[in-house]
Amino acid sequence: SRTAVAPLERMKILLQVQNPHSIKYNGTIQGLKYIWRTEGLRGLFKGNGTNCARIVPNSAVKFFSYEQASSGILWLYRQQTGNEDAQLSPLLRLGAGACAGIIAMSATYPMDMVRGRITVQMQTEKSPYQYRGMFHALGSVYREEGFRALYRGWLPSVIGVVPYVGLNFAVYESLKDWLLQTNPYDLGKDNELHVVTRLGCGAVAGTIGQTVAYPLDVIRRRMQMVGWNNAASIVTGEGKEALQYNGMIDAFRKTVRYEGVGALYKGLVPNSVKVVPSIAIAFVTYEFVQKVLGVEMRISD
């Protein structure tokens, strides 16, 4: 699913960090055509390898962290209430999920940071490729900018987890309850929604959650580019200096001052467009691999 929507993901990042003094991409369609014309097919998938490589450790840490956080929160909840048979409420599960998301994101953040730079870098006569791949990028950033550089933009990423996960959960549950009560177009049966309907609810919830937390994602990407001396013209602009940010608040302030509030939503269109196909492809692939491996567990489990 990541690979299928990789061109939209790259387009989103390029729009997020694009310098207003050197506009190359005026929109999603024009931007994709420009990449195809200037960089070819491979250009559409730049940074996707690092993005896919990040999935395994991120998922492993996330599941392990969720189990540990759930156990710890449940123990504290039982101690506080004095009820040894108490179970986690939806709100407490939300808290455990947020903890797991933050821990997993933090553990793999350097991979996300260099993925952003690999995605953005462009080869020109004056600016050859600086990073040859994920490991080369990690080593280069560490040697040239220090360990802390690998975590630039970490704070807005952590803060963004709260509204994203919270809204995701709240919208999904509310939408699901409304559909079960009204049951329009016979979308449910026996007080349970069809799988496709639940996927649709997830897509809507994900889109709303991402939209609200999106400005934090823009700031994260921009902070990741700070200190990159050999950044291509997409970041600095021809003959222009890239803006330097002293922190998250400073990045917000300068972005709004020089580009307006709308700059906080650059790249939102390709980001929203990729939600539905990404979820659909993930589901179809899951079902196919499930049959190949002979796994009995269903999505609803």
TrEMBL record:
Its main location: mitochondrion. Pfam families: Mito_carr. GO terms for cellular component: mitochondrial inner membrane. Keywords: Membrane, Mitochondrion, Mitochondrion inner membrane, Repeat, Transmembrane, Transmembrane helix, Transport. The keyword Ligase does not apply. InterPro entries: MCP (IPR002067), MCP_dom_sf (IPR023395), MCP_transmembrane (IPR018108). The keyword Cell wall biogenesis/degradation does not apply. GO terms for biological process: organic anion transport; organophosphate ester transport; transmembrane transport. Signal peptide: none annotated. It is a multi-pass membrane protein. Belongs to the mitochondrial carrier (TC 2.A.29) family. This is Mitochondrial carrier protein.
